[in-house]
Structures are given as C-alpha cells and as structure tokens.
Amino acid sequence: xxxxxxxxxxxxxxxxxxxxxxxxxxxxxxxxxxxxxxxxxxxxxxxxxxxxxxxxxxxxxxxxxxxxxxxxxxxxxxxxxxxxxxxxxxxxxxxxxxxxxxxxxxxxxxxxxx
Length: 114
Known about the structure:
Layout lengths: L10 E2 L4 E10 L9 E14 L8 E7 L2 E5 L2 E5 L4 E4 L5 E4 L6 E8 L5
Antiparallel strand pairs: 1-2, 2-3, 3-9, 4-7, 4-9, 5-6, 5-8
C-alpha cells in the first residue's frame, strides 16, 4: 500500500495548460503504479488547456466547481462527481468559465515510451 498525503505531493507542469496547478497523487514519482497515474488539477477562473489531442485515453472526475470540456463534437460541463472519458486522439480543451476555482482528478495511462 502507498498512501500519499496531499500536503506531501509534488506539483508538475502540464504542457498546454494555463492558470492551472497540477499535483501528482499516484504514479510517476509519487508511487509504483505500473499502468496509470492520477493527478489533481486546480483551474483558476479563466484557466484551462489548449485544444489538442493525445494518443492516450483519459478520464476526468469533477471534485469541486465546474469545468467545461470542449471537443470537436460539442461541449459539456463537469461538476462534482461527474466523470468524462476521452478516447485516444480525441481533441479536447478545458476552460473554467466561472469565478471560482475548479478541481478535477485526472486518470491516464503512461505514455507508450515510458
């Protein structure tokens, strides 16, 4: 078992993200997870991501506040305990259109070259 306390986890930089602070909860340097990693992302009002696709599937789980996920097919708002699956190569952007900090969990597999 590997317990990581929020007060002890490390911040990480996520390319294409702005006005966001991300923390690795499990995986990479945070634990020996072999198949996936979990991050906690705080988006300030107006914060978000560029509209890009990656070859990795991903899941977002709303923790607090509201975030809008925009894909080429449309957009949806994620609220606490809502979840969103994005398929490999599905382009998306995220934007916090509110005046409150929004928080999500991010669950993703490791890149193939890792």
